[in-house]
Amino acid sequence: MLLQDILREVNYFRVEGSLDKQIDGIFYDSRQVSGNALFFCIEGFRFDGHQFAGEAAARGAQAVVISKDVPLPEHVTKVYVDDTRLAMALISKTFYGNPLLNIPLIGVTGTNGKTTVTYLVKSILEEAGKKVGLIGTITNMIGNRKIHTERTTPESMDLQRLFSEMKTEGVDSIVMEVSSHSLSLKRVAGCQFEVGVFTNLTQDHLDFHKSIDDYREAKAKLFEQSRQAVINIDDENGRIIMERGAGSAVTYGIRGEAHIYARDLEITSKGVSFRLFTPYGNCLINLNIPGIFSVYNAMAAAGACSTLGVSLECIKNGLEKVKGVPGRFELLNTGTDYSVILDYAHTPDGLENVLKTAQEFTTGRIITVFGCGGDRDPGKRPIMGETAGRYSDLCIITSDNPRNEEPMAIIEQIIPGVKKTVCPYIVIEDRKEAIAYALKQGKEGDVIILAGKGHENYQILKNNRIIHFDEREIVAELLGRETV
After folding, report:
1. Are strands 260-267 and 272-278 parallel, antiparallel or unpaired?
2. Are 195 and 227 in contact (CB under 8 A)?
3. How many independent structural domains does the chain possess?
4. What is the per-residue pLDDT across 323-370, written as a single tens digit (0 to 9) for each?
5. Which helix (H) or strand (E) holds 174?
6. Collapsing DSSP states into helix, strand and coil, what is residue 345?
7. What global pTM score does this model have?
8. Which CATH number is 130's domain given?
9. Cα–Cα–Cα angle for 14, 159, 168, rounded to 5 degrees
């Protein structure tokens, strides 16, 4: 593809060199550059891509997209733009042939529930006869084929390449999680969403966003790129987003008036049943994921799919076919007279939802094993502690992904929150030892919640060292079982 054609959607303010060049590949990592390449100089949190433009040129880059001057050989064309991230998103869309053309894209944003909603949407659309692509935290999927994922929402170039791969394999609908980071960092710039879904918003990522208002504004950007919106009207921030421009949205909720709502909820350890009301009729739903938050997730998925014209019958069947989502209130098969539940809950609201759901059916105690991630918003740590203490009978405070912080320093910030409650607690820094202690405490009717890791099978330690850490395997090992 000629460079001049690749740049047709980009506003560049200066070019040094020829645009009449063949470009066979595009890259933002200089180590991957080969052949006749175009290299994007992206300013990241740790590195500035402009520093690697020379290496990219040495590896074969014929052109670079830059926002500030860098010394390069004369044969390398320099394309100056104000925002290299935005330029990368738009160029990638062009380079990969605008792969979303005629493929509806559903985006799901919010603090909690994104992963589950995307799985539910995928199941409903498949029930309606679609081949669905899924992009999210746990994995990326083309139909039933899983593809490893590094982050919730891929970089724009990787995202467009993935869209192209999905199109080649016959995907006719795509549902994806859209993180606040991806919206702020323009990873989804140039994407037209057929439906944007808002689940909820609670404190998280304030290490990245300056305030909860900034966090909400980042989420709200999704609806500037969405033809239709589906909004949780029970969430205060959902109502604010509606007032800010998504006023014609399809709303869902339980407490207030909404287009889609649920009544007659019955929650057990195995799932939840409720009657789903929509503008197109109502039906009884038996969902295999317990908790009131699961009802909200189901309504969000129903709202998105009904907006796309999917029948109520397909919505019901699609919802009921989902047996669970990895690491989301996942009941492990331990063979014990107490229950062990794995959940990704790593925000105060997420943890509260999980613990309140457990309270709905437990006949014994709730024992909670949890920690907080390092290099992330420290303000939520005491809130997490207070939340765990309020809804648990015993808290075991441990390490999560400490990253570059000292695990005990993180734990010390959690403890004041637990102390605000009457819940007894113990500190066990080593997470495997903490799990072992919890299992030893388990008695008939108890529920042990392993919170924070969920689907993750690793721990991130200092200097970005990653070790294998799969809590399913650990529980099986500690209980002397092959699998759980």
Report:
1. antiparallel
2. yes
3. 3
4. 999 999 999 999 999 999 999 999 998 899 999 999 988 999 999 999
5. strand 173-177
6. coil
7. 0.91
8. 3.40.1190.10
9. 115
